[in-house]
């Protein structure tokens, strides 16, 4: 097993703090005592409660990142901000965030005398696309044989190209790219979680694609794994096991509905989309051809997935059953600058020893910080 | 994980096009609850298919007789390379069945299929569920080297199914020498397989190059039943007697993968299959009864 050099991160910057990944990751990083500072930036306010993470609101283009990075002497930047769902925002917002935002973040980490030593970029398996002549398992060094077909793929390919370019130019910095496959699990909303929430799951007639998933906790752990280690290059982030879509639907306890015709799929999907069924463009090819990723490269660095694809689907099934109950139970978190400032800085707040960790997160992470590798 | 097969790692130069040597022990563990494997092969559907259509063809229509099964290794990866002679490639299922049925280890075989494998509705879905994979080099390599399975490949590619009747047992050029290259890269033995009978079971009356393309037949060959009976013509086989012979493996593990050697291994495999075919044809007295 290759033991990558360990240079523990102490001062971290998390981009996309208001996104699911940014928020989850910052919460997770707070539990490491050797982390001195966690700064989170985003264009909107955080959606999760955090203990000691500091939030800085920035403009959509992340143009002033460099000043934050230098002022706080950030050594590790974790970029979780990429939008991988074309229905999440408008085309131009997505493009601005994914392509221009990435360029500006890279520029913020560059420059003479930059304190940044490590950059972790969360990308997506959409980079590989989805075609009928694909290999059954993509490995990291494979190239795409076809140009990207959808807007989101184009953006991701472009963003990754600038990251690769940056990594090539700045050899002294460790640049890690994590390509995550479709994510399932409690709390996250992705095209697949929306698809699986439907009473019957639509499929394309005559196709039963292979689909692979990864549990959201494993993605957070993967980002955290990369944040504390020197892992140069690209790594797939996908759980063990590739399911047939019909198998996944069976695990969810639902029935498949082959409502999409094999020809003219786009047209029918378009009209179903207008009727409220969530079909992003990038999903249609997956419903036809499926996609599998080889996850051994990341495992070879010592990372272990806690859940297989099958277990991620089972977790999603449980989430779907509990959804109504959960929605009624708790009040959602609301960010208010004054309250957060008071909690962090007021001398009247009695601080408990140790960083606050949510009850469901506490059990999830390795108790020992990742300094065990020689 | 001890293995008697000597396994050589692919050299760096070739590894660029293929997955770099990834540790085998990090392959996903098999989940016993599942009835579909990571390649999309469905135990259930394969079982149904095997008990019905394949059983009928194997036992009653083609009355397959297999010999030389001792040349198929009991453990570890091996690449089986067979000749194509008929239009409808019934031989793939027959070879796989003979190993599953008559080989002492009863090993499953993955069938590498050419062409736009994933594109046809129903057909590609069923093919994958009964154990076919596309011939992408990375797929073949993973199956052979990492998962140590048996893979059946038809090295003549599409040209094999386009051979007109009178040339049915004449081997075409082995496309890109991918048979030899795949086996050598994976460091597994290459077992040549000869099949006699398929050429008569679904004779090719005209290849698509000649008449078919003009008729716009989507590249399907003309057979006694295709395209006259529509999709049902895909299952129109004549009751020819099948004989399958597994030949002594061409050892590839020690030869590395320099292009010279790839060519010589490919030539040797091709010559052995051609010689085997001629021997079997000479011994055959009747097309229908063997």
Give the tags.
heterodimer; A: 374 residues; alpha/beta; globular; disordered N terminus; B: alpha/beta; seven-stranded mixed β-sheet
Number of helical stretches of at least 4 residues of chain B: 10
Strand fraction of chain B: 5-15%
The main pleated sheet of chain B reads as: 7 strands, mixed
* Poorly predicted segments of chain B: 1-19, 214-218
Structural class, from secondary structure content of chain A? alpha/beta
Number of strands of chain B: 7
Q: What is the number of E strands of chain A?
A: 13
Roughly how many Å apart are the termini of chain A?
11 Å
Give start-end ranges of low-pLDDT stretches of chain A: 1-5, 355-374
Oligomer: heterodimer
The greatest interface here is: A-B, 35 and 35 residues
What does the largest sheet of chain A look like? 7 strands, parallel
Mean pLDDT of chain B: 80
SSE order of chain A, as H and E?
Answer: EHEEHEHEHEEHEEEHEEHEHHHHHH
Computed structural class of chain B: alpha/beta
Spatial gap, N to C terminus of chain B:
43 Å
- Strands of the biggest beta sheet of chain B: in what spatial order? 1-7-6-2-5-3-4
What string, H for helix and E for strand, traces the elements of chain B in order?
A: HHEEHEHEHEHHEHHEH
Strand arrangement in the largest pleated sheet of chain A: 3-2-1-4-5-6-11
Assign a percent range to the helix content of chain B: 25-40%
């Amino acid at each position: 097993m290759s033991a990558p050099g360990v240079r523990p991160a102490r001062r971290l910057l998390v981009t996309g703090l208001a996104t699911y990944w940014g928020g989850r990751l910052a919460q997770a990083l707070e539990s490491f005592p050797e982390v001195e500072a966690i700064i989170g930036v985003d264009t909107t306010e955080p959606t999760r409660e955090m203990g000691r993470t500091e939030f800085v609101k920035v403009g959509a283009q992340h143009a002033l990142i460099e000043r934050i990075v230098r002022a706080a002497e950030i050594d590790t930047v974790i970029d979780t901000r990429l939008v991988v769902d074309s229905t999440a925002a408008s085309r131009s917002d997505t493009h601005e965030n994914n392509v221009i935002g990435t360029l500006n973040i890279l520029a913020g980490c560059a420059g003479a005398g930059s304190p940044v030593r490590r950059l972790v970029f969360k990308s997506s398996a959409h980079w590989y696309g989805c075609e009928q002549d694909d290999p059954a398992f993509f490995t990291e060094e494979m190239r795409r044989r076809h140009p990207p077909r959808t807007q989101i793929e184009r953006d991701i390919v472009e963003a990754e190209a600038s990251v690769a370019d940056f990594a090539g130019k700045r050899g002294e910095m460790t640049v890690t790219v994590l390509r995550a496959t479709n994510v399932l699990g409690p709390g996250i909303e992705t095209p697949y979680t929306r698809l699986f929430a439907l009473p019957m799951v639509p499929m394309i007639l005559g196709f039963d694609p292979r689909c692979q998933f990864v549990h959201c906790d494993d993605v957070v752990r993967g980002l955290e794994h990369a944040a504390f280690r020197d892992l140069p290059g690209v790594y797939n982030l996908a759980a063990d096991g590739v399911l047939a879509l019909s198998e996944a639907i069976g695990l969810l306890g639902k029935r498949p509905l082959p409502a999409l015709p094999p020809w003219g799929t786009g047209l029918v999907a378009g009209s179903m989309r207008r009727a409220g069924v969530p079909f992003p463009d990038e999903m249609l090819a997956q419903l036809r051809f499926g996609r599998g990723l080889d996850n051994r490269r990341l495992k070879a660095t010592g990372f272990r997935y806690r859940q297989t694809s099958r277990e991620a689907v089972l977790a999603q099934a449980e989430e779907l059953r509990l959804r109504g109950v959960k929605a009624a139970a708790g009040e959602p978190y609301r960010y208010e600058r004054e309250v957060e400032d008071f909690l962090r800085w007021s001398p009247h707040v009695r601080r408990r020893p140790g960083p606050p960790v949510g009850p469901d997160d506490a059990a999830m992470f390795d108790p020992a910080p990742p300094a065990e590798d020689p | 994980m001890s293995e008697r097969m000597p396994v050589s790692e692919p050299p760096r130069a070739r590894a660029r096009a293929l997955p770099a040597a990834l540790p085998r022990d990090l392959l996903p563990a098999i989940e016993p609850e599942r009835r579909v494997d990571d390649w999309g092969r469905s135990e259930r559907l394969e079982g149904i298919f095997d008990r019905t259509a394949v059983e009928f063809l194997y036992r009653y229509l083609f009355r397959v007789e297999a010999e030389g099964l001792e040349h198929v290794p009991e453990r570890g990866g091996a690449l089986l390379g067979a000749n194509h002679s008929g239009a409808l490639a019934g031989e793939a299922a027959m070879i796989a069945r003979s190993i599953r049925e008559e080989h002492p280890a009863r090993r499953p075989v993955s069938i590498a299929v050419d062409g736009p494998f994933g594109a046809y509705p129903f057909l590609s879905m069923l093919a994958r569920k009964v154990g076919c994979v596309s011939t992408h080099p990375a797929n073949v390599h993973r199956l052979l080297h990492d998962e140590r399975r048996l893979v059946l490949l038809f090295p003549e590619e599409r040209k094999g199914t386009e051979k007109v009747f009178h040339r049915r047992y004449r081997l075409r050029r082995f496309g890109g020498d991918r048979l030899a290259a795949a086996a050598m890269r994976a460091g597994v033995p290459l077992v040549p397989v000869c099949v006699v009978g398929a050429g008569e079971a679904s004779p090719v009356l005209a290849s698509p190059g000649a008449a078919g393309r003009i008729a716009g037949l989507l590249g399907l060959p003309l057979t006694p039943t295709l395209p006259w009976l529509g999709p049902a013509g895909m299952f129109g086989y004549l009751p020819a007697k099948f004989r399958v012979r597994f030949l002594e493996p061409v050892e590839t593990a020690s030869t590395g993968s320099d292009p010279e050697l790839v060519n010589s291994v490919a030539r040797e495999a091709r010559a052995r299959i051609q010689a085997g075919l001629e021997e079997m044809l000479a011994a055959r007295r009747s097309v229908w009864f063997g």
